[in-house]
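User: Fold this; tokens only.

Assistant: Input:
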Amino acid sequence: MQIIELFKFLIESKSETPDDGGILDFVEKYLEGFTALHVNKNEVKNLFIYKKFGEGKHLCFAGHVDVVPAGNSWETNPYEAVEKDGYIYGRGAQDMKSGVAAFLQAVKETKEFDGTLSLLLTSDEEGPAKYGTQEVLKMLQEKNLLPDSCVVAEPTCEDIFGDAIKVGRRGSINGLIKIQGKQGHAAYPQKAINPIHQIAQVLEKIAGVDLDNGDEFFAPSKFVITDIRAGMQVTNVTPNSLEMMFNVRNSTKTSVKEIAAFVHEHFAAMDYTLSLDQTAFPFVTSSDTKIVRDIDDAITQVTGIKTKYSTAGGTSDARFIAPYGVEVIEFGVKNDTIHSVNERTTAREVEDLYKIFKRLIEIY
């Protein structure tokens, strides 16, 4: 197959989480001569496929074949790769069948490499992500097959293709504060303890506040309130309790410990409890590492663009890879229609991404 033919085939292989749409079996057959290891658990299918060309370093390309549901109001069939107005439309066009097609074709065409090349593919990135990449990494550690460097081909570019790579990601900490008050009649507020009135005194001091100053890689960690609820939806009874949910996309400068101290500083006078759950930890791959230098060079050689290093955005499976000591970065097509109706990308971006990955393999 040629790269665009392969890309269209992947789009038309419907693979809503955790269904892989038959893609993993296809990849195993497509990469003839590679060794395939399957890690399947709780309806999630994962594939690690590799080939040792030489004694040098191990370079891995990682990604997911699953997509979010298409939703309604598409102008085209979301599971038909339709070319229109200079774009290729279809669910997963940006997130991330473009990336999978690009590195799959680049690896397939590799004849010489001084080391090991591999692909890590999961069907559970868009879902809970509990039985996907994490399970594969456990297996790789047991078999001493962890890569030295990894490229996750998520869509990363902002305004034009080639303008940004992810050299790290912020962490994510979810919080729940429960304030205990005393229910009462709205006409006798002095006989009650109204938790809404209590929290009103501190909201402007916590809502949207930066918890650190950030640094050259990370924006400041911000305290973002996502939900506040209390009461019985009546006008004559004050609530007995209140719950407030929040999220902090944290840099390496703010941890669960600092967040707990920040909350206590403002809620100490209240009868409150705090629950914190860190679902992702922040990481950054140094610009001095080989994988960052090489992908930077490859992007410049193919596009003529000097890329920037970013840690913005949400989370990806790179958050699971970095803690194993693997130098991990992310690079893919432009990110402006992911998860949306009429998701699309251009053939040129897919072709150039494939060329960049081929060049990366040559110079790594």
